[in-house]
UniProtKB/TrEMBL annotation:
It comes from the Bacteria. The keyword Transmembrane helix applies. Keywords: Membrane, Transmembrane, Transmembrane helix. This is Uncharacterized protein. The keyword Membrane applies. The chain crosses the membrane at residues 27-50, 56-75, 91-108, 114-135.
Amino acid sequence: MNALSPEEARQQLAEASDRAELSRSDAVVGAGVTGGIGILVAATLAAATVWRGSPVGLGVSMGVYAVALALLMWWQASKFRISDRRWRRRYQWGFGLTMTLYVVGILWESFAFPGWAIFAPFCVAVAVPALVSAVKMWRG
């Protein structure tokens, strides 16, 4: 058996990671968590706007968000077995864009609330990047 150089070992590991077989249940879990996070973030933006000025309402909505997020993370940790680089990139892009839109929404709502006719569709749009990533994960 020949010893591999560190560079050869890294290359073989990268190739093995790219070829990893992903089960259908991994696709369901990965897509479910990614889409679920997008929906939670969008719902949290809407809830923060609805409960603006009410510490109790905002606290309850943030508590619901925290519990739902914890359940998603628990589900992922208990069911998700393997992921590849493509999935990681898809998740990072979807989550990153969703969070960017969330921050824009918080700033927009804080400084110049446009009214629900415009802001409600924006809240839905916040979830779109994560949902697109979830669909791509689902399809493989």
